Amino acid sequence: MASLEQLQQGLENAGQPHVLQFWPELSEEQRDAFLQELAQLDLQGLREHCEAAAKAAASPPVCLDQHMEPLFPDSIGSVRKNDTKNLSGWEQEELTS
User: Fold this and answer.
1) What ranges does the record give for the region Disordered, renumbered to this chain (predicted)?
2) Which of 11, 14, 71, 82 is close enough to 43 for a disulfide, judged by CB 3.0 to 4.6 Å?
3) Is residue 54 domain-shared with residue 75, that is, in the same domain?
4) Digitized pLDDT (tens) for each residue of the chain, 97 residues in all
5) Number of separate domains in the chain
6) Same domain, yes or no, for 75 and 54?
7) Angle CA(64)–CA(68)–CA(69) in degrees, nearest 5?
């Protein structure tokens, strides 16, 4: 198992040092369990994921309007525009799924 110091350095390199922010408040048992969980993380992969997410968030959003199409009428329903039989069927379908 990795030591606390190794994990601190790995988290620092991954840009995630805040993960250990509440370390002093944990019991010894909680610390051991947390260390085991942290040791399983791919910290380099975590760093790459966070960098990619930050880059994507900084990019202007892509407009998807040109790809949008109206729904087919049989794909939508209305409580106000349907008869009791259809409404009961929908209710039963919901209850059994």
Assistant:
1) 73-97
2) 14
3) no
4) 678 999 999 999 999 999 999 999 999 999 999 999 999 999 999 999 999 999 999 998 889 999 999 988 877 777 777 788 888 887 888 777 6
5) 2
6) no
7) 175
Tell me the three state secondary structure of residue 72: coil
Query: What are the residues whose beta carbons fall under 8 Å from the beta carbon of 86, sequence distance 6 or more?
Result: 77
Q: Is 80 helix (H, G, I), strand (E, B) or coil?
A: coil
Q: Distances in Å between the alpha carbon of 64 and those of 28, 70, 71?
A: 51, 13, 16
* Domain assignment present for 51: yes
Domain range for 14: 4-58
Q: Position 42: which residue type?
A: D
Evaluate whether 8 touches 20 at the Cβ level (below 8 Å): yes
